[in-house]
Design a protein that fits this description.
heterodimer, A: 458 residues, Uridine Diphospho-n-acetylenolpyruvylglucosamine Reductase, domain 3, five-stranded antiparallel sheet, 16 strands, B: 430 residues, alpha/beta, Fumarate Reductase Iron-sulfur Protein, Chain B, domain 2, four-stranded parallel sheet, globular
Chain lengths: 458, 430
């Protein structure tokens, strides 16, 4: 990048926040997706709102592609920059501006780390439910841009259910104000809604208003194992049919159970075909009643083993098994391809069966775990990217996973985003007209096409 | 460019280890350097990506990568928390050795490692002279902490508040020992370590006193060399090998059941790095493995082997404990030092982030003092907020840096090794 432009950026964000060396640029050429890295021409780190707005405008003035990056934990390549582009870091914009306990909302800058925010909210006696797996490092700006989910989706919803407003910069450097601090707001288009899951393609977030709620007073966790995936799935359906909405309802397949057990030696039954991890929460009386009912439903559906956590340590042991799933699987082979194809809840047995077939057909190791309550599965392909033949089979298997999920009335991505990785499948889930509509909208809002080009709509 | 190609090939040998990083980025949550700078090149994922970039010949700025590689405390917190179990410390130490092979060792480091560390007698003589004349150049700043600062403007010293060299090092106070197992029926070897020998001999004395009172026989050879970590972390495998070989020769001269140290860094180096990183005479491998297997931290030995238990408070004051990275991250030793503090009759109070690195990191402190100070400052604040009147830890390097930090803040908090507290309590009991 020429020095005149570097100087313009330096004038906005300060010399120390302009990174143009080869090493710095290489370090922002990737994210957590298994995709090829792309070196940006420049990395900048604005430390205040005004500098952020000017940075966006300067990129647009020079026609430089701009990719916003929080913690770079994206699993679909949404934070991989465009060749010759600029990476704009948000970790210099990490202030929690307000936590309002009376009106139950909070205002944050986009670079605030999710877990830190949830902790601060908890210190105010309130609750921010979305808990993506990367919450210890992920940023709220990234969570909104990807519409991140987590383990509590079934009862508490996902990030979009907590976004009350987003102020963002358009490519001309104008601050666009959306939403409000009120529960109800119908002033104009729901632009805040448009920003959710927009993956940095429509505007650059300046600050976000988030809804926070009272925390549940009590909770109870349990673990149930089954001799077949079918029995586990029917149990899930029966729990919902009994009008119980657990806060968390997770499933693990036999391969994942065995891998976790070999990793932790916590005494999981290695012969079980499926395991459900369930937590109900709410008022203590309701929790007691629902836990008892869930227990009964599990037994009625042939649970071979049922463990109800009696104290905090036992509860932790239940969730440790779930937390171990990805690390345990990841340690088996060098490359770990984590997908998030999602189907309607009732189609989980069919999807698991399909994954079994795919694993056999392409001779690949696939461990599956995920959010049974909301149909969001995480088939995890364990492979070695350096093995070209195997990698080709992985690519075909991924195609087939998406095809099968869509055939079952599902979606390409429950929570990881479309990014670069799944852009080519979008037409399969939607149609040509839908993509054209999105592209026309983007071409008006971002005429030079600088905002995270190549993502979502190709 | 031919050279760069050669360098790439050397890094390609790390490929099997590098490929296991799935770029999840969870190391951002725990890296003390990243917490200060927020830069990807400062966190493990970024560093591994840079090494991978060199290996694949995507990068040409090897010197730039080397600079970033050295902005690391080698505290091992990332490895202890890595979801895919990447052997990060192995990769970093091997990478530093490759870089040192490529760029050569700086003249200063060559003089220090090969001229001084590798010649223990000369090292002792030079530090002995230093101890005599240091008063000319330093002045006391905190009597309770025993810290000093430079009298004149000295760039290398900057504004550090440091512990000066002891007037009499441990190897002069106790020249050698070879006592038989007493009532305990156990005999141990004692590895002093440079910092305890030359700056905190009282820690070594405390350990020896406790062992004597517990009826434990001690073998302390007349000569000891540095454990080798300063050389290894600067990529000087040659000096490391030489130091390990010398120590093995001196320590295998006598039989003992355990090899004890009161330095977290020496413990982890002997236990984890001697067997894995020694590239010298293959005939020594079995002896190295045996020594490594016998190696224990002093508090681990007292609690796990001798069964020392917590005692009622006996007026030794309010103590908080800092976990040295080299005990906590690699070896998982966290409970035993705390038990020893309580066994000494102290009131124990846990500080916030007790397991977070103090920011010392050996030569990191020399090369990146500003960062080291920022990380240490947070540690000092957590210590002060705990309300303790004494900070105890298990590593003399942490003691040095924490003393510097507390002295700057005029905290009025003592810095002690856990074994000193325990030895003092034995004195109180008469």
């Amino acid at each position: 990048m020429n020095t005149a432009i570097l100087k313009e950026f330096a004038a906005i964000v300060g010399n120390e926040n302009v990174m143009a060396s080869e090493t710095d640029r290489h370090a922002y050429s990737y994210d957590a997706a298994v995709l090829d890295s792309v070196m940006p021409a420049l990395v900048v780190r604005p430390e205040n709102s005004e500098a952020l707005g000017k940075t966006v405008k300067l990129c647009n003035d020079h026609g430089l592609p701009l990719t916003v990056r929080g913690a770079g934990t994206n699993l679909s390549g949404g934070t991989i920059p465009h060749p010759g582009g600029v990476v704009v870091l948000t970790n210099g914009l990490n202030r929690i501006l307000e936590i309002n306990a009376e009106d139950m909302y909070a205002v944050v800058e986009p670079g605030v780390v999710t877990a830190r925010f949830a902790g601060e909210v908890a210190a105010h006696g309130l609750f921010y439910p979305p808990d993506p797996g990367s919450q210890a490092v992920s940023t709220l700006g990234g969570n909104v841009a990807e519409n991140a989910g987590g383990l509590r989706g079934l009862k508490y919803g996902v990030t979009k259910d907590y976004v009350m407003g987003v102020d963002f910069w358009d490519v001309g450097g104008n601050l666009i104000k959306t939403g409000s601090r009120t529960v109800k707001c119908v002033s104009g288009y729901n632009l805040a809604g448009l920003m959710v899951a927009s993956e940095g393609t429509l505007g650059v977030f300046d600050r976000i208003i988030l809804k926070i709620i009272p925390p549940p007073k009590a909770s109870r966790s349990m673990m149930a194992t089954f001799a077949s995936m079918q029995a586990a799935s029917e149990t899930v359906a029966a729990i919902i049919a009994a009008k119980i909405v657990p806060a968390t309802l997770e499933i693990m397949d036999n391969f994942t159970i065995r891998t976790v057990e070999n990793f932790r030696h916590a005494g999981l039954p290695k012969d079980a075909a499926a395991m459900l991890l369930i937590e109900v929460d709410g008022h203590p009386a309701q929790v007691a009643e629902e836990a008892e009912l869930v227990e009964r439903i599990c037994k009625e559906h042939g649970a071979s083993e049922l463990k109800v956590a009696r104290d905090a340590a036992e509860r932790d042991a239940v969730w440790q098994a779930r937390r171990d799933a990805l690390p345990a699987l990841a340690k088996l082979r060098p490359t770990c391809v984590l997908e998030d194809a999602t189907v309607p809840r009732s189609k989980i047995p069919a999807m698991i069966k399909a994954l079994d077939d795919i694993s056999k057909k392409f001779q690949l190791t696939i461990g599956t775990f995920g959010h049974a309550g909301d149909g969001n599965l995480h088939p995890t392909i364990l492979t070695d990217r350096r093995n070209e033949q195997e990698w080709q089979r992985v690519e075909k298997a991924v195609d087939e996973i998406f095809n099968r999920a869509l055939e079952l009335g599902g979606t390409l991505s429950g929570e990881h985003g479309i990014g670069l990785a799944k852009a080519k499948y979008m037409v399969l889930e939607t149609n040509r007209g839908t993509l054209d509509y999105c592209r026309r909208m983007k071409s008006v809002l971002d005429p030079k096409g600088i905002l995270n080009p190549g993502k979502i709509i190709g | 460019m031919a050279d760069l190609h050669q360098l790439a090939q050397m890094f390609r040998e790390l490929d099997d280890q590098l490929v296991s990083c799935m770029r999840c980025g969870m190391c951002q949550a725990v890296c003390p350097v990243f917490a200060q700078t927020g830069r990807e090149t400062d966190v493990t994922r970024g560093k591994l990506a840079l090494l991978d970039g060199l290996a694949r010949e995507m990068l040409t700025d090897a010197a730039g990568v080397n600079d970033k590689l050295n902005r690391c405390l080698l505290c091992g917190t990332c490895q202890a928390n890595c979801p895919s179990g990447v052997k990060i410390m192995d990769i970093f130490l091997k990478a530093r050795a490759i870089m040192t092979g490529y760029f050569g060792l700086s003249r200063t480091k060559k003089a220090i490692f090969r001229g001084m560390l590798a010649n223990p007698r000369l090292f002792n003589a030079l530090t002995g002279m230093g101890a005599t004349f240091q008063g000319l150049f330093t002045k006391k700043v905190d009597d309770m902490l025993g810290s000093s600062c430079a009298r004149f403007n000295a760039p290398l010293v900057a504004d550090r508040h440091f512990n000066t060299l002891a007037a009499t090092p441990l190897h002069k106070l106790v020249q050698e020992l070879n006592t038989p197992a007493g009532a305990s029926g156990i005999k141990v070897g004692f590895f002093t370590g440079c910092v305890i020998d030359k700056i905190f001999p009282q820690v070594g004395q405390a350990a020896l006193k406790v062992l004597e009172q517990k009826g434990v026989g001690v073998f302390l050879p007349a000569q000891q060399a540095c454990c080798g970590i300063p050389a290894l972390s600067s990529g000087d495998g040659q000096t490391f090998d030489k130091l390990v070989a010398m120590n093995v020769q001196w320590f295998t001269a006598n039989e003992f059941d355990y090899l004890l140290t009161s330095c977290a860094t020496c413990t982890s180096t002997i236990k984890e790095l001697w067997p894995r990183m020694f590239k010298g005479d293959p005939a020594l491998a079995a002896a190295i493995k045996e020594l490594a297997d016998k190696t224990m931290d002093i508090s681990q030995f007292l609690v796990d082997v001798l069964g020392v238990k917590e005692a009622p408070a006996a007026g030794c004051g309010k103590v908080t404990y800092h976990d040295p990275c080299h005990l906590k991250n690699g070896l998982g030793i966290t409970a035993q030092p705390r038990t020893l503090i309580k066994a000494a009759g102290c009131v124990y109070t846990e500080m916030r982030e007790a397991g977070a690195c103090c920011g010392c990191g050996g030569s990191f402190n020399v090369a990146h003092y500003d960062l080291s100070k920022k990380i240490g400052s947070r540690k000092a604040e957590n210590i002060m907020d705990s309300g303790a009147d004494t900070l105890a830890t298990s590593c003399p390097a942490c003691m040095l840096h924490i003393t510097d930090m507390l002295s700057h803040k005029k905290a009025g908090i003592k810095v002690k090794h856990v074994i000193e507290l325990y030895a003092d309590s034995m004195k109180n009991q008469g």
